[in-house]
């Protein structure tokens, strides 16, 4: 995943966070919070994968 893709995910999360603050319907707010939580979890997972891959590459290179 590229830096641009990470940034796009961050922008999408920010967009949904803004919507969740503006929405007045309780069900919509709840659904938006669930979406935000899933997007944030996906972003953390993707960053962990990239970080782990880079660590493995560095480990292989230093041997």
- Terminal residue distance: 26 Å
Spell out the helices and strands N to C: HH
**How much of the sequence is in beta strands?**
under 5%
Helix content: over 70%
Number of helices: 2
Shape annotation: elongated
Radius of gyration: 16 Å
Question: How confident overall, as mean pLDDT?
Answer: 91
Low-confidence stretches: none
Largest sheet: none
The quaternary organization reads as single chain
- The number of distinct structural domains comes to 1
- The total beta strand count reads 0
Category by helix and strand content: mainly alpha
Itemize the secondary structure elements and their pairings:
Layout (H helix, E strand, L loop, with lengths): L2 H20 L3 H37 L1
Helix pairs in contact: 1-2
Structure description:
This protein has 63 residues and is mostly helical. The chain has one domain. It contains two helices and no strands. Helix 1 runs antiparallel to helix 2. The two termini are 26 Å apart. The model has no long low-confidence stretch (mean pLDDT 91).
